[in-house]
Automatic annotation (TrEMBL):
SUPFAM superfamilies associated with the record: DNA-glycosylase
Family annotation (Gene3D superfamilies): Hypothetical protein, domain 2 (1.10.340.30)
Stated name of the protein: DNA-3-methyladenine glycosylase 1
InterPro entries in alphabetical order: Adenine_glyco, DNA-3mA_glycosylase, DNA_glycosylase
Source species taxonomy: Bacteria, Pseudomonadati, Pseudomonadota, Alphaproteobacteria, Rhodobacterales
Species this chain originates from: Phaeobacter piscinae
PANTHER family membership: DNA-3-METHYLADENINE GLYCOSYLASE 1, DNA-3-METHYLADENINE GLYCOSYLASE I
Length: 207
């Protein structure tokens, strides 16, 4: 796939943004911009877990269904889900009916509760894995990085599931921990500006 896509407005975007129509608004308004909201971070790590082995198009098309099924990804509610909820979700045609992934979201909600107690917020934890200036890789050249490997390892150590290094890097790209917009993409500078105005929750927590 080309690294650049000439959008209908005549401006270049990342190549993947032009592969299907629904990707362009997601690319332009969400992907790569820094996120500090715990619920959005939890939602994204869960959706990336569901994507494992599938396409993001499949997950994006079902995102509202996932939100309805998992209580808006309010982890304090999802953590209370039990076997009957698993059975209910396995019958829900609006989501991906994969028992392991469904059970992983419930498990990860419980681990998220523990993380907030230990770290103050999910954001403070996740943003502590933001690459430093010397750790940047050229845009759209990597599927894993040392930081995503380290994040995956620590999440697994804390009992999280379906959080491999590739899943973690996709999460980091989407939530703005790295600016992986293509060099010529019009959104690269927009994301860079947003990141420059953003104070890392990890820094705030440390302060």
């Amino acid at each position: 796939m080309s690294k650049d896509f000439l959008a209908p407005d005549g401006q270049l975007r990342c190549g993947w943004a032009g592969s299907v129509p629904e990707f362009l608004p997601y690319h332009d308004h969400e992907w790569g911009y820094p996120v500090a909201d715990d619920q959005r971070l939890f939602e994204k790590i869960c959706l990336e877990s569901f994507q494992s082995g599938l396409s993001w198009r499949t997950i994006l098309a079902k995102r509202e269904n996932f939100r309805a099924a998992f209580a808006g990804f309010d982890w304090t509610r999802v953590a209370r889900f039990g076997p009957q909820d698993v059975d209910r979700l396995l019958q829900d045609a609006g989501i991906i009916r994969h028992r392991g992934k469904i059970e992983a979201v419930i498990n990860n909600a419980r681990r998220a509760e523990e993380m907030v107690v230990a770290e103050g917020s999910l954001a403070a934890f996740f943003w502590s894995y933001e690459p430093g200036p010397d750790d940047q890789v050229p845009p759209q050249t990597a599927s894993i990085t040392p930081q995503s490997i380290a994040l995956s390892k620590e999440l697994k150590k804390r009992g999280w599931k379906f959080v491999g290094p590739t899943t973690c890097f996709a999460f980091m790209q989407a939530m703005g921990l790295v600016n992986d917009h293509a060099t010529d993409c019009i959104c690269r500078q927009k994301a860079a500006k947003a990141r420059a105005a953003f104070t890392s929750p990890a820094v705030q927590q440390a302060g």
